[in-house]
């Protein structure tokens, strides 16, 4: 974990606001400290001497102090808000950029729900903490100690109670801080779990309803919610001790001031106005300590959340660059490649080797869980190999800058991902400067012309996640997006699963006519890969056979089983 202090470098552009905000708060506090003295003067000189002129004069002074204090307070609030919001905005940008730089293995390990919590709830807590610190961190202690000093200017003997009260209150405050910080970290972890459950239920609503698992999911959510509730209650009980303990201490001090002050007023050693001033100063201390208590609770949460954000920023999940002296002539080559998603875990791919020349079409087939997606995800370097080497266009993928490597490759994932906007904005996602002619060509190859016509043209609306389109329509638009980039390597990761056989055939035939493009087609359909120049058949993460359709039917039992089971079932003789 990196030091939380390193987050505050993002305040460097708000140095002026960080100085002016607290400075105006101190000015407000300074004027507030004079109010009890003015009130004492009203009582001792105005009321006792029936001097109405003096009373009205002091009332005017108090109004003036109030107006000046209000102006200072509003000004301070403005500068503090600008600094806090700007600070959180900068961290949010840096955090989002850092998350984007994480490799898939690291992002999978952290978890999507955790990352969402960090960039939303945790960051908001940190923003609130910074805002309150700038406003109250100097003001509250200034009022507390300033009130004690001003009390001594009124009467030294009566003010000795302040010397006992302030240290006792400090002990209470710091005890709550030490007790609350670790508890709030556990609360945020429980919130992560709730977010994960909620996200899974929202994204998997159809599956849950299809299997009638609503009751089980509700029970699962309730368990997580109960855990979060119990942790929040425990944290609340610790912080709830702050107010009653401070109220008891301060009010006992007020009772002592009134008792001892009454005796000294009778003996003539203290005036009534001075007693009222002392009580007011003690009340000011009470009010500020309540504010300080809220500040500490918020800061405790903010520190816990800030540490969680710092933990994510400390993760070095970017791809390492390695320089290999080996060169190959193939468009894509795997040399003794193995992959394990977890350290010391079971291998998803084991000792895979093959070479693909430029312009070839390659089919990757196997049963579910055989490692098809794992294999093609190594080409754009979504994951790093555990053992062996992967070469693209003659160079080790680790020797490429990540952006340069991925410009060579266009991949269509299993799950079609569209964004809210238009057909144009989605198809040109990888090439924003594409002309209408280029877009229409890519759409034609992807067999998506009817989708464009149905939506009224390229500027037809696409809902978030493409919810206003069918599964097949979404897949064809994502394929068009990949084709438009003009990448030298095209990877279709089971991206035609929602297409009918006729559309699938037309799509593959159109793609095969694109010159100079090496194509990987991942599928569980034998018909989707049978016309490829090379077919890689996987079984439990190992290569069961490599060759053409005819060769594999004769020599590879795994491939022939997949092929004949599908044709026996469907009668498709394509």
Q: What can you tell me about this protein's structure?
A:
Mean pLDDT is 85; it is low at 569-574. Strand 9, helix 17 and strand 10 form a beta-alpha-beta unit. Helix 1 (15-47) packs parallel to helix 5 (139-154), helix 4 (112-136) packs antiparallel against helix 10 (272-314) and helix 5 (139-154) packs antiparallel against helix 10. The chain starts with 14 loop residues before the first helix and ends with a helix. The protein has helices at residues 15-47, 52-101, 104-110, 112-136, 139-154, 160-203, 205-210, 214-240, 242-267, 272-314, 372-377, 402-407, 423-427, 436-445, 449-454, 471-484, 501-512, 526-529, 549-555, 557-570, and strands spanning 332-339, 349-356, 361-365, 387-392, 395-396, 409-412, 421-422, 461-462, 489-493, 518-523, 534-539, 542-547. It is an alpha/beta fold and 574 residues long. The strands form 3 sheets. Strands 6-9-10-3-11-12 form a 6-stranded mixed sheet. Strands 2-1-4-5 form a 4-stranded antiparallel sheet, with no helix packed on it. It has a domain at 90-314: Up-down Bundle (ABC transporter transmembrane region fold), CATH 1.20.1560.
Task: Please estimate the helix content.
Answer: 55-70%
At CATH level 3, the topology of the domain at 90-314 is ABC transporter transmembrane region fold
Strand content: 5-15%
The end-to-end distance, rounded to whole angstroms, is 58 Å
Gross geometry: elongated
* Spans where pLDDT lies below 50 across 5 or more residues: 569-574
Structural class: alpha/beta
The largest sheet is: 6 strands, mixed
Number of strands: 12
The CATH architecture of the domain at 90-314 can be given as: Up-down Bundle
Number of helices: 20
CATH class of the domain at 90-314: Mainly Alpha
What value does the Rg take, in angstroms? 35 Å
CATH superfamily of the domain at 90-314: ABC transporter type 1, transmembrane domain
Strand order of the largest sheet: 6-9-10-3-11-12
What would the average pLDDT be, to the nearest integer? 85
């Amino acid at each position: 974990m990196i030091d939380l202090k390193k987050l505050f470098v993002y305040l460097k552009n708000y140095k002026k606001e960080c100085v002016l905000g607290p400075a105006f708060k101190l000015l407000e506090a300074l004027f507030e400290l004079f109010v009890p003295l003015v009130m004492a003067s009203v009582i001792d000189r105005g009321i006792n001497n029936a001097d109405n002129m003096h009373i009205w004069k002091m009332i005017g002074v108090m109004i003036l102090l109030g107006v000046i204090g209000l102006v200072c307070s509003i000004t301070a609030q403005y500068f503090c808000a600008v600094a806090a919001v700007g600070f959180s905005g900068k961290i949010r940008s840096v955090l989002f950029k850092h998350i984007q730089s994480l490799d898939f293995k690291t992002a999978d390990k952290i978890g999507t729900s955790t990352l969402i919590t960090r960039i939303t709830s945790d960051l908001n807590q940190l923003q609130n903490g910074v805002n309150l610190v700038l406003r109250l961190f100097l003001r509250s202690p200034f009022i507390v100690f300033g009130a004690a000093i001003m009390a001594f200017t009124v009467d030294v003997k009566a003010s000795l109670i302040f010397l006992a009260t302030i240290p006792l209150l400090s002990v209470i405050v710091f005890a709550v801080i030490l007790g609350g910080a670790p508890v709030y970290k556990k609360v945020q972890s429980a919130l992560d779990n709730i977010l994960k459950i909620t996200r899974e239920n929202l994204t998997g609503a159809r599956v849950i309803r299809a299997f009638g698992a609503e009751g089980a999911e509700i029970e699962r959510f309730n368990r997580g919610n109960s855990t979060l509730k119990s942790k929040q209650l425990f944290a609340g009980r610790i912080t709830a001790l702050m107010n009653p303990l401070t109220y008891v201490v301060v009010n006992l001090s007020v009772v002592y001031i009134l008792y001892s002050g009454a005796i000294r007023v009778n003996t003539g050693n203290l005036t009534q106005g001075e007693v009222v001033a002392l009580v007011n100063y003690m009340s000011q201390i009470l009010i500020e300590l309540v504010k300080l208590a809220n500040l500490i609770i918020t800061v405790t949460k903010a520190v816990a959340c800030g540490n969680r954000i710092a933990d994510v920023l400390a993760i070095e999940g970017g791809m390492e660059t390695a320089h290999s002296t080996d060169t190959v002539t193939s468009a894509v080559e795997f040399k003794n490649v193995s992959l394990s998603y977890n350290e010391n875990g079971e291998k998803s791919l084991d000792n895979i080797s093959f070479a693909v020349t430029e312009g070839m079409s390659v089919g990757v087939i196997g049963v579910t869980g055989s490692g098809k997606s794992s294999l093609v995800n190594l080409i754009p370097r979504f994951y790093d190999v555990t053992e062996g080497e992967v070469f693209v266009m003659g160079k080790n993928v680790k020797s490429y800058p990540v952006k340069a490597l991925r410009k060579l490759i266009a991949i269509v994932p299993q799950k079609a991902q569209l964004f809210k906007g238009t057909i144009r904005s989605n198809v040109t996602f990888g090439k924003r400067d594409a002309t209408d002619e280029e877009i229409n060509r890519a759409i034609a190859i992807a067999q998506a012309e009817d989708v464009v016509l149905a939506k009224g043209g390229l500027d037809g609306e696409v809902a978030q996640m493409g919810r206003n389109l069918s599964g097949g329509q979404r897949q064809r638009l994502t394929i068009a997006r990949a084709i438009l980039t003009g990448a030298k390597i095209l990877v279709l990761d089971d991206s035609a699963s929602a297409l009918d056989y006729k559309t699938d055939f037309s799509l593959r035939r159109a793609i095969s006519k694109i010159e100079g493009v090496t194509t990987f087609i991942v599928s569980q359909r034998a018909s989707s890969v049978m016309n490829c120049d090379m077919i890689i058949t996987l079984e439990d993460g190992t290569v069961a056979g490599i060759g053409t359709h005819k060769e594999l039917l004769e020599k590879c039992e795994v491939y022939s089983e997949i092929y004949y089971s599908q044709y026996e079932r469907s009668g498709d003789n394509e």
